[in-house]
Amino acid sequence: MDVKLPQLAEGVEGGTVVSILISEGQEIKKDQAFMELETQKAVGSIPAPNSGVVTKIHVKQGMEISVGQLLISIDTGGTAALSANKTVESVPEKVPVGARSHAAAPAQPVANSGIGIDDYRYPSQSGLAPPAPPAIRKIARELDIDLTRVRGSEAGGRINLADLRAYVQRLQQIAFAGVAAISTPIASAPAAPSPVETIDFAKWGPVRREKMSPLRRTVSRRMVESWTTIPKINQFADADITALLTLRKKHAAAYEKKGAHLTLTSFFLFILGHALKNHPRANASMDEAALEIVYKEYCHIGVAVDTEGGLIVPILRDVDKKDLLQLSQELHALTEKTRQRKIAIDDLQGGSFTISNQGSIGGSHFTPIIYSPQAAILGIGQGQAKPVAIDGKIAIRTLLPLCLAYDHRVLDGGDAVRFLKDIIAGLEAFDETDIKLK
């Protein structure tokens, strides 16, 4: 029985082998974890689909693998092995609607197109369409482009905008070049120019190179996608948290006895759980393909966590239905699990809003990047004591810098200002009955 990497989650096309937990010749039980895989921002185990003896390990630690790639071979014994193998191969293909015909079709020129097409097809062993950002898929649908014919230049054959542009430009060249160019294979087309010039930094002194981890590559890719596809606006404000800090100091010890850390992030989660209900556009998403705004009835908030490997955003679910103690306990547990890289993929998906708190490391005002496909993110800096005029008198108050970054396709300026004002009001007039333990 050949065990291949299954489709783990939507948008996850592969990962890096962190560790192999078995050896050749070892007996393995059904559902026993035989390897750990780092996928995007999570590290998870891969279970064996059947019991047997491991006859061959086809991957190594540190190897980058993709969906459908052969991992191990198991001798399940006679008829059981044959039955299991048939079961594995009979699993229906997970091909998106509209892509199945492309994935199954043999490589051949486009009928009656008048344009020669090379024999390249995305080498999908699982039947899935090639990986590409939603914006690229949308463009391909509008232009009726078969993405299985576009060579992706990123890891795992992922297609970016430059790849799609190069493909379209090549089609234009062939169309305009006449009959002589029709027979020219696309494979011979010049490579798309690199968007960034390669620099030999060693010319000026010693350097050290470090390969980007899967986590760092994922963060980079998602940030570029967000920055280039979302028309973002930043709204700044300061909140007076002097009274809130007094409340926190008063009740922190009681929360510690319950195994919870009463942090500013806990207060923000509680306040946002209510504010997002009153401002549904801040909790919405843009469906570019359908040209619709999706209003979510749930409130799942992502919290950016600074780890040794990079920024990870786990999700706290149903924030609007929990009290301050529950939020503080769950936030602490989820943060610790994230820093230990024991977070599951499901804990990283489905967020409707995100907060990024740099206050603990001394950050001031900053402009966070929206965590697509969400419509907004709240950046929180470090509170600082500053002189403030109150009723004509100067007083020293602790001001907290805030920045709300939002998708202008979903929220207008008035929406954003009103939403941010409600957040500030919640901070500055926090009801002590909401913090007292019952």
In words, what does this structure look like?
- By secondary structure, the protein is an alpha+beta fold.
- It folds into three domains: 88 residues, OB fold (Dihydrolipoamide Acetyltransferase, E2P), CATH 2.40.50; 89 residues, E3-binding domain (Dihydrolipoamide Transferase, Irregular), CATH 4.10.320; 204 residues, Chloramphenicol Acetyltransferase (2-Layer Sandwich), CATH 3.30.559.10.
- Helices cover 29% and strands 22% of the residues.
- The chain contains ten helices and 19 strands.
- The strands form five sheets. Strands 9, 12, 15, 16, 17, 18 and 19 form a seven-stranded mixed β-sheet that branches. The chain has a four-stranded antiparallel β-sheet with strand order 1-8-6-3. A four-stranded antiparallel β-sheet has the order 5-4-2-7, with no helix packed on it.
- Strand 18 and strand 19 form a beta hairpin.
- Helix 8 crosses helix 9 and helix 8 packs across helix 10.
- About 13% of the residues have low confidence.
